[in-house]
Each structure stands twice: as C-alpha cells, then as structure tokens.
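For reproducibility, we list the full input for the NAP complex.
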Amino acid sequence: MEAGKTSDVVIIGAGPAGLSAAIYACRAGKSVLLLEAEQFGGQIVNTPDVENYPGIKKISGFDFAYGLYEQATALGATVEFDRAAAIVKNGTGFIVKGEQAEYGAKAVIIATGAKNRHLGLDAEQKFVGRGVSYCATCDGAFFKGKTVAVNGGGNTAVEDAKYLSGICGRVYVIHRRDQFRADEKSVEFLASKPNVEFVLNSTVTDLIGDEDGKLEAIEVMDKLSGEKKKLEVSALFVAIGQVPDNKAFDGEVRIDDKGYVEGGEDCLTGTDGIYVAGDCRTKSVRQLTTAAADGAVAGLAAAAYAD
Ligand code: NAP
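The corresponding predicted structure, in tokenized form, follows.
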C-alpha cells in the first residue's frame, strides 16, 4: 500500500459538511486533505432546487456543491478519491487507511454523510437503471411525458416530485403516512400541480416488469385497508431517506444503534483529535445549513488541535 503524505487535517467525505470544514481549516492556515469515496458534493448534488439555504433564494444542489468545491480547493484543500477503511492512532496523530493508500493526519474529521435507503424489495436491484432510480435529477429526463412515481414524504421526495412534474406526464407521490415530513410550503406547492397525485398511507409492495425487464408497474398497498392496487408507471424514484455508513470507524469513535457517529453540537467524538460533522453525526436536524455549521465548528476545532 502506498503511503500518503501527512496533512494537518484529513476530512473523510467531501459533501457540504466536509467541504465547509475544509474551508474553515484552510483559512486557519492548515493543510487539508479531503478523502472522497464517490463524487464530491454528497447527496445534495441530486437535489434539483435548494430553496432554504440562508442568503440564497434558489440554487441547484449541483451548483451549490460545485461552489463549495471550488471555494475549498481555491483555498488549498486537496481531494483524493479513495474510500476510508479505518482510522488508527499513530503517536499523537492518526493514519487514515484508505483502500488505495494511507494518509497521515494530525486531526481527522468524519463527514461521511449518508446513503440512499433502499425499499428492501426482492426485485429492487434488478430494476435499478431499468425504471428504479434514487436520483430524479440524474434520471428524470429519461421519462419525459411518461407516468412515474416518487416514494417518500420528506424534502427529497417532494423536491423530486416537483422537478419530475415539469418533465413527466403524471407523477404519483406515494407516502406511508398522511402527513408529510417535508416543509409545508413545498408540499402545498406540490399539491397545486395538476399532474401530481398523492397516494397516502401507502407503501410500495412489489415491482412489476415488462418482457424486456423494464419497470412497467408497481404494486401499492393501502396501509389502512390492506387493499393492494397496481399503478402503471415507467419509473419509480425512491426517496425514503438515508442511512449512514460508519462501520469502518467503530471502535475509534462511538457509533449509535442507527449507525450515526455519536457527537454533539461541538462536533467532538470523545476521541481527542477526531471530530464528526454533518448528516453522519447524531443530531435532530439534518439540513444543508446544519451540515455547513458543523463544518465550521469541526474545521476550526480540528485546526486548533493540529497546531
Ligand atoms: P427524510 O427527511 O428522512 O424523509 C424520509 C421519508 O421517507 C419520510 O417521509 C419517511 O416516512 C419515508 N420513509 C422512511 N423509510 C421508509 C420506508 N422503509 N418505506 C417507506 N417510506 C419510508 O429523508 P430525505 O427526504 O431524504 O431528507 C433527508 C434530509 O435532507 C432531511 O433533513 C431533509 O430536510 C434534507 N433535505 C433538504 C432539502 C432542501 O433543503 N432543499 C432537500 C432534500 C433533503 P415518515 O415521514 O413516515 O418517517
């Protein structure tokens, strides 16, 4: 395994929390390495419109993430595409073991975010890329004029449905309760769209394909009556929340029973020199604003530790 150089601060995850932490640590005069397993920007790159980040009326998730990336790298942060597999203590500092190399660090920030939750249906995997999608902005355009469904009741589902209603002929929004978790204003706006239909108190129970193996319908169960019905759709956009993935760091930091790294608003993990920021942290509000706020707190704390 290649031995990487030692940085003052290694940040695991280049989403909004990690990139914000990089901005603050760089501005504090520290050398910063961001390790990213997939693509910079995290989950927000898949959000069509962000309308609740203070000071910015409306911006696409991709543009927002790209702005953060440009800001962090212009300040001197470097980005390596590698998946962090472990953090081990090394004297007063740490070694972050990646799949491709090892990276020395005086301080580490875990900002791994979270991944899309899957429905858990047997047929789900076989329809990925054949009608089942976890990203409306990536795949919505393939279903121009068609009937599609969005599953979920959070901001992601509502934003996705809003976006799809401008492209697709008809959009079903399937949610397991009759109250949405998403902002009331966004739900009201979505409800005003003539080509959007809410299917509430309902879950998706099966995926049905055509002879070419492409999705042609979904089975939906009304949770109150137990009744099942078939909705003919060309695509199902799954937006039922996220799950964290921090198993690699268990032992070095405390992980709660849902997989989040235990830490408070001070972003401390209980292990000196390791901080946690953003959606991967135990917290009650997971928003861009709170991810950026964590980034500032963790970035400054890690920079001070690395002094
Ligand atoms: P979320 O807020 O956790 O919502 C997940 C939704 O999926 C909930 O409505 C939940 O139902 C439902 N759900 C969960 N597990 C399910 C299952 N197994 N089967 C069926 N339905 C299930 O997730 P999110 O919408 O992805 O948002 C994540 C965070 O990012 C949130 O804090 C959100 O506000 C934020 N976000 C912000 C923006 C923005 O600011 N523009 C955009 C996107 C996301 P219940 O409601 O019944 O639990």
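The first helix runs from residue 16 to 27. The pocket of NAP is lined by residues 47, 50, 52, 117, 152-157, 159, 176-177, 181, 203, 239-242, 286-288 (CB under 6 Å). Both points were considered when choosing residues for closer inspection.
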